[in-house]
Automatic annotation (TrEMBL):
Subcellular location(s) of the protein: Cytoplasm
Family listed: Belongs to the SIS family. GmhA subfamily.
Keyword Metal-binding annotated: yes
EC number(s) per entry: 5.3.1.28
Name recorded for this polypeptide: Phosphoheptose isomerase
Pfam family, one: SIS_2
Function: Catalyzes the isomerization of sedoheptulose 7-phosphate in D-glycero-D-manno-heptose 7-phosphate.
Note: The reaction produces a racemic mixture of D-glycero-alpha-D-manno-heptose 7-phosphate and D-glycero-beta-D-manno-heptose 7-phosphate.
UniProt keyword terms in alphabetical order: Carbohydrate metabolism, Cytoplasm, Isomerase, Metal-binding, Zinc
Stored PANTHER family: DNAA INITIATOR-ASSOCIATING PROTEIN DIAA, SEDOHEPTULOSE 7-PHOSPHATE ISOMERASE / DNAA INITIATOR-ASSOCIATING FACTOR FOR REPLICATION INITIATION
Length: 193
């Protein structure tokens, strides 16, 4: 019988090394959290979008803000632009898949909102266009990418580049950082109320 223990150990070791490297991102993570807190304080909202595993991360993080992360507190305005199959299919079919996030940003984003585009390659055309549309709407834009960053990281106001070129490791960092940002938001809300 094949043993998968080496494969498992390799994943665990790579994950641990990647998370270890994250500690140098502490000041950046604090800046990202502060931007989100300032946005919510001003009555604005947080929009998330991405493809595949990153679509799941977008939904996960929007749910943390709307419902709760660790604490019972007031509901916070946040949306994942990855969930409405009628919008995604109509826009994809009529205007092209690269427009599916930009179109929703044009419909929903207000100046002062935070738009978070999640793309490990940093190259997904629909995430790039979503971030560009958010900039045009005077949102504060954030990119979550892997190490290389790509066009998404270049065009965003702030970029978190996970310290790994591996898609899975970058996604794990995105969710970890997303959870830290939710905890910062709840720490702010608890202080205020
Ligand atoms: O979750 C995974 C791989 O771990 C995949 O579903 C992955 O998210 C998809 O291939 C995405 O389409 C990749 O897009 P991106 O992160 O490069 O923007
Ligand atoms: Zn995945």
């Amino acid at each position: 019988m094949t043993s998968y223990q080496n494969l498992i150990s390799a994943h665990l070791a790579e994950h641990l090394a990647t998370v270890q490297a994250l500690s140098s991102a502490t000041p950046l993570i604090e800046s990202l959290g502060q931007k989100i807190i300032d946005c919510l304080k001003a009555g604005n909202k947080v929009l998330f979008f991405g493809n595949g595993g990153s679509a799941a991360d977008a939904q996960h993080l929007a749910a943390e803000l709307v419902v709760r992360f660790r604490k019972n507190r007031r509901a916070l305005p946040s949306m994942a632009l990855t969930t409405d199959t009628s919008i995604l299919t109509a826009c994809g079919n009529d205007f092209g898949f690269e427009e599916v996030y930009a179109r929703q940003v044009e419909a929903l984003a207000q100046p002062g909102d935070v738009a978070i585009g999640i793309s490990t390659s940093g190259q997904s055309p629909n995430v790039i266009k979503g971030l560009q549309a958010a900039k045009a709407r005077q949102c504060f834009t954030i990119a979550f990418t892997a190490e290389a960053g790509g066009p998404c990281a270049e065009l965003a106001d702030l970029a978190f580049r996970a310290p790994s070129p591996v898609t899975a490791r970058a996604q794990e960092c995105h969710l970890l950082v997303g959870h830290i940002l939710c905890d910062m938001v709840e720490a702010w809300l608890t202080q205020e109320n």
